[in-house]
Write a structure and sequence with these properties.
The chain is an alpha/beta fold. It is built from 19 helices and 14 strands. The longest helix is centred in the middle third of the chain and has 18 residues, at 211-228.
C-alpha cells in the first residue's frame, strides 16, 4: 500500500531545467543563490505584464486553467473603477494528497514564486502580498524567503507581506477558501460564488493564482516571450510540473516541456508498461486507458482530446493487479469526508455517491449502479464551490473508464482482484487546524452485537447506509465535524450498543515559532525603499 507522499519527493527533469534550475546545486535556493542562478529581475508595467502572459499563453496551473492575462486586467480594471488598492495572493495551499508540485517549488525555489508575485504587485500597485500554505516545511521556507527580502507584515511598510496557514484539505485550496482564510475566517468556501477580481481579501480586488503560475511569470519576465516559446508546444509553450505517483517505482515531481509523450513520463517514474488506467489531473480529474496514454502528450489540449485532464498536474497510473473500483472507493470515501458541509450536493450528495459505489462493489447489482448514476448526476452543477463538481467528475469518469470491471461487480459480484491501495491518501488524523472539518474519528460496528435495526442509518444517512444484506454499511472516512453530533446520537440510540466512535479528534499542533528578530535583523527594517521594486531582488542594493 502506498504511503502518503513526502512534502518534497524526488525531483526529475526532462530536457533543460527552467523552474527547477539550480536544484542540482542545493536543496533550497536562498536569495543570494537564486539571483546567481536566475539573474536580476526588473519591474514590468501593468499592460506589458498582461501582454507577456498572453504571449506565452500563461494559464493558471492550479487546475482551473484560467488565462492569467485576463485575470490581471480584470483586477486592475476593478481596482481603478473602485479607487482601491488590490491584493495579490499566492495560492500554495496544496491539500490534495496526490499533488506536491507547488510544495516542491515553495520549499526549494520560494524566491522564483515571490518574483512573479512581486511583479504582479508592482504592476497593479498592490500594497498587500499574501502567501497561503498548508505544510510546516512550506511555511518555514516562505517565512525565511520573506525575511531574506526584508518583507514582513509590519505597519508602515510600503508593501506588507504575510503568510497564511490553511488546513491540509481538498476544499482549503479552493480560491474562495483561501481568500476567506486570508481575511481571518475559516479556510472553507463561503457558500456563495464571488469573483475575486471584484471582491476578494477584505473586499478588495484580489489577484489570486497558484505558486507555479507566478513562477512561470517570473521566468518569462526574465527571458522574454520569444525565448520562453522556444520550449514546448507552440500553442502551449514552456514547461509543466507534474506529480507522478500511484503504481510507480519512484513517486516524483518532474518538470517536462509540453509536448513530451505521457508514456515517457510514466516510464521515467517506473509505471507499469500497460497500466490498467491513469488518473489525470488528480482526484478532481479523469481516468484514461492504456490506449489513450499511448496517444497523449503532456498538454491541456492533448489530454482533453483523449478524455483526460491536466488539472492540478497529478498523474496516477494503476497496474493490472488491483481492483480499479476498489481504488476509486477509497478516494470516494476521502472526497466525501472533505466536504465543507455547506450545501446539499457536498454535504449529502458526495457521501451518498460514495455509499452508492460501495453498494455496487458489494453485490448491489444493476439497481445500485443506476442509483449511483442518478446521485452523481444530481450533484453536478449545484454545489457552492468546485468540490462537488470535481468529485462528480471523478465518479463519472470511474464508471466510464472501467466498464469491464463494473460489469464484473454488477453481474458477478466482483472482479476477483484485491484493492492494494496504490492511490495516495493522507494518514488518519492528518488535519491540523481548528477549522479542519474532518474530526479524526470514525464510526465502527461490533458485528457480534448488531441486529440490523437500521436506526443509525436513519439518524446519519450521510455516513451509514443499509446494505443489501440488511446490515449497516459504514463510510470508511473520518466523521466530518458538522456530522459529529448526529454520529454521537446514532451511537447513543443503537439498541444493541453495537455502534461506537473510534479515535480522538487530533489536537492542533503548536505553530512553528517565528525567528527571533533583533534590531539588526533585515525583517525589522523598512520594506526596501521604492517598495516593491527593490523587493524584486535585483541584487543591486
Amino acid at each position: 500500500m502506498n504511503a502518503p507522499l513526502p512534502d518534497v519527493p524526488e525531483v526529475r527533469v526532462v530536457g533543460l531545467p527552467v523552474l527547477t534550475q539550480g536544484f542540482d546545486l542545493v536543496e533550497r535556493l536562498d536569495l543570494q543563490l537564486h539571483l546567481k542562478v536566475h539573474g536580476p529581475l526588473e519591474p514590468v508595467p501593468g499592460e506589458r505584464l498582461a501582454q507577456l502572459a498572453d504571449d506565452i499563453a500563461l494559464c493558471g496551473r492550479g487546475g482551473a486553467g484560467f488565462p492569467f492575462g485576463r485575470k490581471l486586467r480584470a483586477v486592475a480594471k476593478s481596482a481603478i473603477r473602485r479607487g482601491v488598492r488590490p491584493v495579490v495572493v499566492v495560492n500554495g495551499s496544496e491539500g490534495e494528497p496526490a499533488c506536491r508540485k507547488d510544495t516542491v517549488l515553495l520549499n526549494r525555489a520560494p524566491h522564483l514564486i515571490l518574483d512573479g508575485a512581486l511583479l504582479a504587485a508592482e504592476a497593479l500597485g498592490a500594497r498587500t502580498l499574501i502567501v497561503a500554505v498548508t505544510r510546516n516545511s512550506t511555511e518555514i521556507s516562505v517565512r525565511a524567503a520573506l525575511a531574506e527580502r526584508g518583507l514582513s507584515d509590519r505597519r508602515g511598510q510600503t508593501l506588507r507581506a504575510r503568510v497564511v496557514r490553511t488546513p491540509e484539505r481538498m476544499v482549503s485550496g479552493e480560491a474562495s477558501a483561501v481568500i476567506r482564510a486570508a481575511g481571518g475566517g475559516p479556510a472553507i468556501p463561503p457558500g456563495r460564488r464571488e469573483r475575486a477580481s471584484e471582491s476578494g481579501v477584505g473586499g478588495a480586488p484580489t489577484l489570486l493564482s497558484n505558486a507555479e503560475t507566478f513562477a512561470q511569470l517570473a521566468v518569462a519576465a526574465r527571458i522574454g516571450a520569444r525565448r520562453y516559446g522556444n520550449t514546448g508546444l507552440e500553442s502551449e509553450p514552456g514547461t509543466v510540473l507534474l506529480t507522478v505517483s500511484g503504481a510507480v517505482a519512484r513517486p516524483m515531481v518532474v518538470e517536462v516541456p509540453t509536448g513530451v509523450p505521457l508514456r515517457y513520463v510514466l516510464q521515467l517514474a517506473g509505471a507499469p508498461p500497460l497500466p490498467q488506467g491513469v488518473l489525470t489531473g488528480g482526484y478532481h480529474g479523469n481516468w484514461i486507458d492504456a490506449t489513450a496514454v499511448h496517444n497523449a502528450v503532456v498538454s491541456r489540449e492533448s489530454l482533453a482530446a483523449v478524455g483526460g485532464s491536466l488539472g492540478a498536474g497529478a498523474i496516477l497510473p494503476i497496474g493490472p493487479e488491483t481492483c480499479p473500483l476498489g481504488e476509486a472507493q477509497r478516494v470516494a470515501n476521502w472526497l466525501a469526508a472533505e466536504t465543507a458541509g455547506q450545501c446539499g450536493p457536498c454535504r449529502l450528495g458526495l457521501p451518498a455517491a460514495a455509499g452508492g459505489l460501495f453498494d455496487v462493489l458489494n453485490g448491489g447489482g444493476p439497481a445500485a449502479l443506476e442509483a449511483l448514476r442518478e446521485v452523481t448526476g444530481a450533484v453536478k452543477g449545484r454545489g457552492a464551490c468546485k468540490h462537488p463538481d470535481g468529485s462528480a467528475r471523478f465518479f463519472s469518469s470511474t464508471l466510464s473508464a472501467f466498464t469491464d470491471d463494473l460489469a464484473a461487480h454488477v453481474l458477478h459480484g466482483g472482479c476477483g482482484r484485491p484493492t492494494t491501495g496504490v492511490l495516495p491518501l493522507p494518514e488518519p488524523g492528518y488535519q491540523n487546524a481548528v477549522e479542519s472539518i474532518p474530526s479524526g474519528e470514525k464510526l465502527a460496528v461490533d458485528w457480534t452485537l448488531c441486529k440490523g435495526h437500521g436506526l443509525c442509518a436513519d439518524i446519519v444517512p450521510e455516513l451509514i447506509r443499509m446494505s443489501a444484506d440488511g446490515f449497516p454499511a459504514l463510510a470508511d472516512a473520518s466523521v466530518p465535524l458538522h456530522l459529529r453530533q448526529r454520529a454521537q446520537l446514532a451511537v447513543r440510540r443503537c439498541p444493541e450498543l453495537a455502534l461506537r466512535l473510534e479515535g480522538a479528534p487530533p489536537e492542533r499542533p503548536a505553530r512553528p515559532a517565528r525567528p527571533d528578530r533583533g534590531r539588526g535583523d533585515r525583517a525589522d527594517r523598512p520594506a526596501l525603499p521604492g517598495a516593491v521594486r527593490k523587493a524584486l531582488g535585483s541584487g543591486r542594493g
